[in-house]
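User: Okay, second chain of the day. Same drill as before: sequence in, structure tokens out.
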Amino acid sequence: MTGVISGVSVSHSLATVEEVESAAPADASAATERLASRPGVSESVVLATCNRAEAYVVTDDAEDGRAALDDFAPEVREGAVTRFDHEGTIRHLMRVASGLESLVLGEDQIIGQVKDAMERAREDGTLGAVLEEALLKAVHVGERARTETSINEGTVSMGSAAVELAARETPLDDATALVLGAGEMGTLAARAFAGAGVDRLIVANRTVPNAAHVAQDVSVDAEAVGLEAAADAARGASVVVAATGAPDAVLTAEELRGTEAVCVDIARPRDIDPAADELSSVVVHDIDDLETVTEQAHEQRRAAARQVEAMIDAEHERLLSSFKRARADEAIRGMYEGAERMKAREIDRALTKLEAQGGLNEDQRETVEALADSLVSQLLAPPTQSLREAAGEDDWTTIRTAMQLFDPTFDATEADSAAEAADEAAGE
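Assistant: Same drill. Structure tokens below.
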């Protein structure tokens, strides 16, 4: 298990909704495979959610990793793009899975999204041992954070935060609410509307049976319709939460003209045409506006977040040590494999010559073999120690040089033959 990880992120912390949308690939699998085809890339994973678009690659040389990710978000201003080296990527993944990088601190959806990204990469054939261990460790830390601290106690999900934001704009008692989308966020929004006391709920989704499942899940009068009926449903609703995965706007400004509604769009790409906010009777909020709703929840979780930070520090150090040992061990293994092959070949030559000179008994043969073993052990002990120290000091240049010098695939017999041929040619 060798290689260094490089990462790139466009997230809500520095980027606008439009920039996150711009960076997010339309097809995560295709984007992952494109990265895997870049020079030097052996593994790749793409993580795309409502609030972030990120990519991670594994290469032998960190420079190859940076080059592979250079054009991940070409249309996003430089100040909104964060790049990570090997150690930074590992820490960032742990922070993401723990919910420390989420808009809603400690929210639970992200850990499932990290798992999904990992599984998709596995199915696409781009997940290898290095990224798998890093992602599994991130998921492990995320699960520990939620079971050992209160980081997600009273968590306000994106869906419920959207409902709370809408409630600040208009009364929800006896209101008719529309939810666009029957996925996880749509389901959470529907449940939050039911808990807020709406009189009627309409769930619109491309697949009506899925919308029906959500409608049956809540304890208020609820109806399921297809997305083609969303515009008609919006005209009768006073509050809308949009959370589909549709590639284009589900509700246009023209379709909302004459409607009196508060709309909260948490989809990416957005479900509601931003121009609708210019209508006098319609208020449109997007993901950026949820920060005002979540600030109080953030304050309550900051103490827990400090516990999670300490947890990440410890897990980060353990994983880095594991990666460092693996890199050093590969170089050491190559060094010993090459030496063992050379030793076996030279012992065979020596014993053949000695047999020709009068023969050897078994004790003498053992003495020759023991001498060869001792020489190999003593000669390789100093570089072995140096490689372990280099790994501990993050001296990857030394390790890469050793791996090149002690390439286990190097055929010394061929090299000897070539050298002999060159000597003969020079003698002629």
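The radius of gyration is 30 Å.

User: Thanks, on to the next one.
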